[in-house]
Amino acid sequence: MFHPDAVGPAVDLLAGLAAGGRALELGIGTGRLALPLARRGVPVHGIDLSRAMVTRLRAKPGGEAIGVTVGDFATTRVDGEFTVAYLVFNTIMNLTTQAAQVACFRNAAAHLAPGGRFVVEVMVPELRKLPPGQNAVPFHASATRWAFDVYDVATQAMSSNYVDVDGGRGDYRSIPFRYVWPSELDLMAELAGMRLSGRWDGWTREPFTSESSRHVSVWEKPA
After folding, report:
1. Which are the contacts of 117, defined by CB distance < 8 A and separation ≥ 6?
2. How many whole angstroms separate alpha carbon 132 and alpha carbon 100?
3. At what angle do helices 182-191 and 98-111 cross, to 10 degrees?
């Protein structure tokens, strides 16, 4: 996801939506998109809960010039208005309840100027890969690593699980998420007073279809 082929189209789309205004990144992390966006002349402010990630951002060239507020991006407020707010790479699923995801949409809308846009990049849940009686979808297998997602279709809870083997010893970790459907996100946006203005298969605006494994969606706050 750090390759220029992944970063460049995302920055192009976000810079275009910023239209000379300010950008707010929810879950700014180490600045994968914020730094190149700032180099394009877009003023960027970020919110992130991880002080360790913010420290890594600060250590990168240009990182000190980006404003960051440490806090929960679902509820933390910062000063000023923005023409675009964005949440990328499945980060909306780090909010593990529907209420927190709704709060995130409302928080984004509260930061946007009239006519501003909220952008989310997130996977489409891979439930079509689950045969009856199975709740796990593997996505990596090698001699030293196994990785798989576990779904609970009753609660929309899921987790990404990793087993790493080094020197004959195994290490296991599990990361919790809440998967969310495109139509559910549209309803969250409506609750926050925004409407859908675009949805694509990726950052280069390929059509979103029933075979898409992810989507980039844009909602607009009325002018």
Report:
1. 17, 83, 84, 85, 197, 218, 219, 220, 221
2. 30
3. 50
